[in-house]
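Appendix B, Record 12. Input sequence as logged:
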Amino acid sequence: MNVMGISGTPRKKGNSEILLRYALKPLKNNGWNVKTFLLSELTIKPCNACESCKETGTCIINDDMQSIYYAFRWCNAIIISSPVYSRNVSSQLLSVLDRHYAVKFDKPLEGKVGGAIAVGRGTCGGQTITINAIYTWMLSCGIICVPGELNGVTAVADEPSDILNQENRLKQAEILGFNILKVAKLLQK
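Logged structural output:
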């Protein structure tokens, strides 16, 4: 089985990336193949709304999104993490979500399992809006949304690596991974 993780933070080793790695652990420990896309290291341009993909089935923008398109087809599950900027997903992640449009007619993610993680600066920093944005996108792709203990994983952290001092949040991320594993196994039967 295969899982892809997308870290939407522009910061290398940011808090949402750390939580993503914890969420992927249970799958990796159960023999899954893991591909992690760190948007801090990739160039994904925003959609230019040219609509050429509607006719050709391919995006004309030649950037790192091509490997993500491949992973959409390859994976059985997807976990997406994002920091909260302006009470929403990062602009880097938004480009990925928007660029999915080029392959949406092929439905490469339909019937697959997905989970979401959001990290914001304050307790009302927009984590719920960000989780809802990711899960809404997942639902529009036909992904089966899996919760952590309650919903997706939300956390409050400010400085890089702050999240490593929050054992409960790290555990919540692992619970999300275990739940994705459980649902994917049920679907495989």
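The chain has a mean pLDDT of 95.
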